[in-house]
Structure formats: C-alpha cells, structure tokens
Amino acid sequence: MGWLYMKSLEGHSGPRQYLDAQFTWTRPDTVSTVLRSALVGRRVYYAAIEHIRTATAKREVWACVCLVRHNVRDRESYIFGYRDMAESMGPHERHCPEPILDLLTPTDSEYARQWRADCRANAAARRARQAKPAPRAGQTIVFDEPIAFADGNSVVRLAVTANPRRPRTVLFRAPGSSCLYRIPDIKNRAYRLVDPLPE
After folding, report:
1. For a pLDDT cut of 90, what percent of the chain falls above it?
2. Do residues 35 and 50 lie in contact, with contact meaning Cβ atoms separated by under 8 Å?
3. At residue 101, does pLDDT exceed 60?
4. Which residues are registered as beta bridge partners of 47?
5. Which among 48, 47, 51 has a CA at the least distance from the CA of 31?
6. Strands 80-86 and 59-70
7. Are 97 and 19 in contact (CB under 8 A)?
8. 5 in helix, strand or coil?
9. How far apart are CA 135 and CA 169, in angstroms?
C-alpha cells in the first residue's frame, strides 16, 4: 500500500494515538483492537493488533508496521503521512519492541516468523550494547579492529580523556599524540577497557 497523507491528526494528540484509533474498529464480522503500540524513533509505528471473528470467536494477534512522517510545518499543510504493512509482508523495519512481540499469536507465514526472529535478535543486540561499560576518563580503550580517522591515523589503542567542553562525554587520544578524537556510536564497536594502574 502507498502513503496516505492528511492535513490533521483529527483531534489526536500524536501519530501513535491517531494510528491506534485507525486500527481499532468494529465491523459485523470482525473486531479489531490495538493491544499495544510504540512509535520508535518518531519514524516507525509498531502495534500488536487483535482480530476476533465474531462468527467463530477465532482470535489472531498480528504485528502492524507503519512508516511515519510527521511535519507540522509542511508547506502544503499535509502534516502527517503513513504507510502501513503487515508483518507477513516482511517489512524492512525490524526493531519492534519485545512487549509487542510477546502478544503475537503463532503464524504460518514464513515472512512473519523471520521478521519476528530478526526483531528479537535486534533487541538482544541492543541490550548487549547497553550493557557494555562506557569508557571513562583515565582508562585505555583497546579495539578489536583498527579505527581509521580523517587525519590518516589508524589505531587500535587510545587513551580516554575528559571532554573539557562537555563534562559528561569523553574524547580519545592516540599514544604519543596531542590530537583528540570523537568516536560516535562507540558501543557498536568491539572493544575492551583497561583501568589505569594504581599509584
């Protein structure tokens, strides 16, 4: 399905609330209810949607994924747009929160099963990154692979120093050099930390 754009959220407080309302409805043959949803990174909406067939009471809970664009300053006043997909379509977005995955009922769709497995693997990798110790000033950081910088240096071992401009952050200095480096998303890299020797 393509993108749907609109000029208002029809009284809803945000994109997630609007989409929750869109996927919650009652028809003669089916009742649809959003059991849980999340807006991840303000760009992707994930939801566990329950469908109950009124004639048979058959219950299914499946995952919905919506790409989201929300811009209240849009030149043409189309402030909100979304593109919805079912998990069985094998969406590229695979960072569904685990509390939503936990609500889904079993499925025969191979695409959906692979999507769920990938989402769980991504969640596990995210937890592992968060659990890694952050470098602290005074430590030495040793990377598994050399890091190349724009000045041509390629190093494995760096000293961790305090950032004088931003006290809660650190910078990195190569041995024998006065150059300081920043390393974005450092927890995505493989490294170990060495504490300074006691005096």
Report:
1. 79
2. yes
3. yes
4. 37, 64
5. 51
6. antiparallel
7. no
8. strand
9. 9
Residue 167: pLDDT band by 50, 70, 90 thresholds?
Answer: confident
Q: 141: part of which helix (H) or strand (E)? A: strand 140-148
Structure tokens at 71: 């811009």
Rounded to a whole number of angstroms, the distance between the first and last alpha carbons of the chain is 65
| Residue 148 identity (one-letter amino acid) | A
Q: Count the neighbouring beta carbons within 10 Å of the beta carbon of residue 104.
A: 19
pLDDT of residue 174: 86
Residue at token pair 């979304």: 82
Q: Could you tell me how many residues make up the chain?
A: 199
Distance CA 162, CA 183 (A): 13
Q: What is the pLDDT of residues 184-198, one digit of tens each?
A: 889 989 999 998 756
Distance between CA atoms of 9 and 19, rounded to whole angstroms? 9
Amino acid in the structure at residue 91:
P
CA-based torsion, 152, 186, 37, 71: positive or negative: negative
What is the domain partition of the chain in residue ranges?
A: 4-131, 140-194
Residue with tokens 């994930």: 46
pLDDT at 176: 81
Give the number of other CB atoms < 10 A from CB of residue 158: 24
Q: Quick one: tokens of 4?
A: 């749907």
In this predicted model, which residue has the larger pLDDT, 2 or 114?
114
Q: Apex CA 132: angle with CA 172 and CA 192, to 5°?
A: 55
Output Rg (C-alpha) for the chain, integer angstroms. 23
